[in-house]
Amino acid sequence: MRNMILYVIVLLPALLGLGCMFFKPGGSKKQTAFMLAVQAITLIVTLIAVCGDQELSTAPLYFTESLSFSLMMDKLGGFFCLLTAVCWLLTILYAYVYMKHEGKEPRFYAFLFLTESMVLGSALAADLVTLYLFFELTSLLSFPLVLHSQTHKALLGATKYLYYSVGGAFVALFGMAVLASNASLTFTAGGHLTAGDLTPTMMLAIFLMILGFSAKAGLFPLHNWLPSAHPVAPAPAHALLSGIIAKVGAVAVIRIIYCIVGVELLQGSWLQTTFIVLALVTIFMGSFMGCTENGLKKRLAYSSISQISYVLLGVFIMTPLGLAGALLQLMFHAVAKIGVFQSAGAIIYLTETETIDGFPALGKRLPTTLLCFTLLSLSLVGIPPFGGFHSKWYLAIGALDAFPDAMGYVIPAVLLASALFTAYYLFAPIVQAFFPGKDHPPVQRVHEPPAMMLSLVMFSAAVLLLGLFHNGVVSTILSIAESLM
Amino acid sequence: MVWFVIFFPVLAALATVYLAKRGEKALGLWAVIATGATLLGMIIAAVSGFGGVYTLPIVHLTVALDGFRCLYGIVVCFMWFVAAMLSPQYFRHHHNLGRYYFFFLLCLSSTVGVFLSAHLYTTFMFFEMMSIGSYVWVAQEETEGAMDAGKTYLTIAVLGGLVTLMGLFLLHNVTGTLLVSELREACMATAERDKLWAAALCIFFGFAAKAGLFPLHIWLPKAHPVAPAPASALLSGVLTKAGIFGVLTITAQILVGEATWGYILLVLGAITMVLGAVIAVFSTNLKYILACSSLSQIGFITVGISMICLLGEENALAANGSVLYMMNHSLVKLVLFLFAGVVYFNTHALDLNDIRGFGRGKPLLHVIFLSGACSLAGIPGFCGYISKTLVHEAIVEYAHHSHLWTITAVEWLFLFSGGLTAAYLTKIYVAVFWQKGKDFGKSWGTPLSKAALCIAAVTLPVIGLTPHVLAEKLSGLTLDFTGGHPFHHEVHYLAWVNLKGVVISLCIAAVVYCLFIRKVLIAKDGTYRSVWPKWLSLEDSVYKPFFRALFAVIHVLCRLVCDIPDLLILAVRKTVLRDSRAKVKTDPYPRLVRMFSRFGDESAQRHADITATRKDVVSRFTGSLSFALLMTCLGLCIALCVMILTVF
C-alpha cells in the first residue's frame, strides 16, 4: 500500500489544479492559505516517501503489451520531487502578491499546479514511456503560463516554446522508437544495455533522445526559445520555468544516460565528446549574451541558458563526481535562480524598472529586494561560501578527474570564463543599484510586501546556509550520484 | 579563541546594521571597541594556542597558528584597530557610514581568515570575501573617480579570483590535497610538472593581482587614492600583503627550489619596484604618491621572496628580510596613509600644491611623519633599515654566488629605487612641513586620532632599535612558513658593508631631488607640476583597447552561434517552406462597379470580398509544401488501402 503514496504525490497537485479551474479562486487570503496547505501536504507526503527505508515503486499499468505506465521513487526522483515541492510552496507565497497585478489568477493557478503535478510525475517515472508522457504534458501545461499576459509578444514566445519543446520531444520519440525495438524501456540504475546493443543506429537513437530532451534544458542548438519565452511569462511562472521546469530536460537526460544506456558504454564515445562540446558552447555563449542584453528579464534568461547547461555538462562528464556537480548545480541554481527571478519580478512590480538602465539607486528604494538579489547573485557567480561555489567546484574537479587530456583543462576554463561573464552581468546592475554616484538625486524607499519578501529571504538564506553547511548536502548528493552508476 | 577572532567581527558587522540608526558616533565607537576586542582575542589566541591547527566542519574551515600566521594575524588586527581609531574623526558628516563600517568589520574577519588559513580552500574562500567586500571601501565616496577605480578593482579582483580557482582545481587534481602542510611533500613527489606549473602560475595570477605586481598592478594606483584614508591604509598595508601571502605559499610549498620560479619573481619584482618609484617621483597627489610607493615596496618584497627561492639553503637573509619588509611596509603605510587622512580631513585637499605648509607648527605630526618616512626610506634606527639591509645583502650574496651581471644590475636597481623612495618622501616632507602656504591653524586632530597616529608611529623605531632582541626573533618565528633557514652568523647592522647601501641610496636621493624634482618638477613660483604623460597608462592604452576588440569579436561570434538555429528556421521559411503568395486580386470588380455598389447592392460587395478571401486561403494552401506532403500522405494511404484490399 505504501507504494500508493507515489500516486498521491502526483495527483494531489493535479487535483488542486483542477479544483482551481472549477472554483476560480480570486487570490484572497483564505484561498491562498488553502493552496499553501495543500502544497505543504504534498511536501510532507513527499518527505515521508523519501525518508522511507525502501525504494517505492508501483506495479506497471499496461497501455499495450510493451508500453507501460509505472512510477518509482529512487534517490534521484526523491531529490527532484523534494526540490520541486519546496520551490512551488514558496512560489505561491510570492504569487499571492504578484498575481494581483497580472490578473486572471484562477487560470494561472490551475496550470501552475497541473504543471507541478507533471514535473513530479517526470521525476517519478519508472520507464521511458511514462517519462515521455509526463514530459510532453509538462510542456503543454506550462504553455498557458507563458501565454498568460496574452500580448502579441507572449503569443510569439509561447508558440516558440511549444514548438521547441514538443519538437524536441518528437526528436526524442524517434530515438525511443528505435530503442523500444531493441531493448527494454524500464529504468534500471546503472543502465541495462550491453556493448553488443550499441550499433550505429542505436547510437544515433541515443543521440537523438538526448538532443531532444535537452531542448527543454536549452542546450545549443535548440536553446533559442528561452530568451523569447521566459521573459514574457509572469515572474512566478518565469522563476519556476527556469528553476525547475527546464531541469526536467536534464532529469530526462540523466535517466537515458545513467538508467538506460549505462555510463561505461558511453564514456569516451563520440557522443560524449559531442555533447560536452555542445554544453560548453551553450555555457559560454549564454553567459556572454547575458552581458550584452539590456532587458532585465532577458538578461536573466540568457543566464539560465548558460547555468542549466552546467547541469548538462556535469551529466555528460559521466563520473560520480561530475554527476554530483550536476545535481548540486541543479539544486543551487534552482534555488538561486528562482530567488533572482522573484527579485527581478519584485523590482518590475514595485518600480516598473524593466531594464538595467533603471537600476541606479534602486538599492535605496528596495533595500531588501536588492540585498537578496545580491546574495543570490553571489551564489550564481560562484563566490564561496555560497552554494553555487560548491557545484562549480565539483564540476571542475570531476572534469579534471575524468579527462586527463586537453578536455580536462578546457572544461574548467570555460566554466570560469562563464563565471566571469556572469559576474559582469549580475554585478554591474548591483553596483549601480547601491552606488548610484554622488550626484544622484535622493530617492524614497518603496514599501516591499512582506509575503513577497518572505519568499525571497527564504531563498537567499537557503543559498547561504546550504553553502555554509555543505558537508551534509554534498554527501547526500554524492550518494545519489553513486546510486545511479 | 581563534574562532572568536574570525567570527566576532562578522557578528560585530551585523550589529552595525542596528547601530547605523544611532548615528555616526555610536558606529565609530563600536568599530573601535570591536576591533580592539578582536586584537585582544588574536593576541590571546596566539599566546595560548600557538602551534595548533584548528578545523571546523563549516565549509572545511582550517586555520593554524604558527609563527608567521600569528605574527601577521596580530599585525592585521593591530592595523584595523588603529585605522578604526582614526575613523570617527575622518568620517565626520559623511554619508552611508553604516555600509562602510559593516564592510570594514566584515573584511577584518576575512582578512584575518586569509592570513590564518592552513588550507587553500579556506584561503580562497576568505580571499574572495575580502576582495569583494573591500570593493565597498573603494567605491564608498561614490565620486566619478571612485566608481571608475572601483570598476577596475572589481574586475581585477574577480578575474584574479577565478584564475586562482582554476589553479586550485589543477593543484587539487595533481596533488589530491590542498592542505598547506601536506602540499610541500605532495608537490615534490608529483611527476606531472607541467600541470603543477600551470596550477602554480594560475594561483600566482590571482595573488599577484591582489599584491599589485606588474602587469596586474593597474587597479592599485587608482583604488588607493580614492578610498577613505583609513581604508587606503588597510588596502595598502594589509590587502596587498594577502597577495604576498599567496606568493610566499607558492614559493615555499608548491614550487620548492625551482630556479625558474625565482627568476620570474625577480623580474616581475624588479619591474614593479622601479616602476612604482618612478611614477611616485612624478606625481603631485599625496595619496597617489603613497599608492605608487606601495607598488614599489611590493616590488622590493617580491625581489626578497625571489631570493628566498634562489638562494636555497642559504636564504636566511632573504627569508628574514622579506618578512620584516612585509611587516615594515604594513606599519609604515598605516602611518603614512593615516597622515594623509589627517591632511585630508583638515584641508579637504590632497594635491601637494594645496597642502603646502600644512605641517608647519605641528611638531607631533612632524615627528610622526618622519618616523614613517625614515622607516620607509631605510634610515638606520628604524624598522625599514633592518629589512632593507637584509634583502639587499641577500641580493649581494646571490650576485656573489651566481656571478651573473644581471643580479648585480638588480642590486643597483634596488639601490636606485631606494634612492627614489627617499626622493619622493623628501618631496612630500618639504612641501608639507617646510614650504609656506595658506595658514592652516594649529589643531589637527581629536585626542583619539592623535593616539592612533602615535601608536602606529611608535612601533617603527621600537622594532628598528632592537634588531637582535625583537626583529630577528619575530622573523625567526616565521621561517617554517617561508621555507627559510636560520642565520649562520650574526648580522652586524651598523657595519660599513651594510651602511654602504643606505649611503648610496641617499646620495641618489639627493641627486634626484636636487637636480630633477627641484629643477624640472617644481615651477618657478614653487608649484608642483605634473609632467607624467596621461597616455602612458597600461590600462588605457593596452588593456582596454585589447579587451574591447576581443569583446567585439566574441560578441559577433556569440551572436552568430546564438542565432544560427533561428536563422536556419528563417532560411527554411523563406525558401522551402515558404508561405506561397496568393495571386493577389485585391479588387475583383472595377472601380466603377464598386462605386455603384456602395450605394446599391452591398451584399454583392460582401460576397465578392468573401470569395476573394476564400480564393486567397485556398491558393495559399495548395501552393505550400505541406499541402504537397499531405497529398503524398493521402496517396500513400490510398495505396495502402488498395494493397490491403487486394491481399484480403
Can you offer a commentary on this structure?
The complex is a heterodimer of chains A (485) and B (648). Chain A has helices at 5-23, 29-51, 75-102, 105-124, 128-147, 152-182, 200-214, 225-229, 235-261, 263-266, 270-292, 296-317, 320-351, 362-365, 367-381, 387-402, 406-434, 450-468, 470-483; strands spanning 56-57, 61-62, 68-69, 72-73. Chain A is mainly alpha-helical and 485 residues long. Chain A has a domain at 267-485. Chain A has a two-stranded antiparallel sheet. In chain A, a hairpin with a 5-residue loop joins strand 2 (61-62) and strand 3. Chain A is globular, with a radius of gyration of 21 Å. Chain B folds into 2 domains: 2-521, no CATH class; 533-567. Chain B is elongated, with a radius of gyration of 34 Å. Helices cover 77% and strands 1% of the residues of chain B. Chain B has a two-stranded antiparallel sheet with strand order 1-2. The longest helix of chain B is centred in the C-terminal third of the chain and has 37 residues, at 538-574. Chain B has 648 residues and is an all-alpha fold. In chain B, strand 1 (53-56) and strand 2 (61-64) form a beta hairpin. The chains are: A mainly alpha (485), B mainly alpha (648). Chains A and B meet through helix 11, helix 16 and helix 17 of A and helix 5, helix 7 and helix 22 of B.
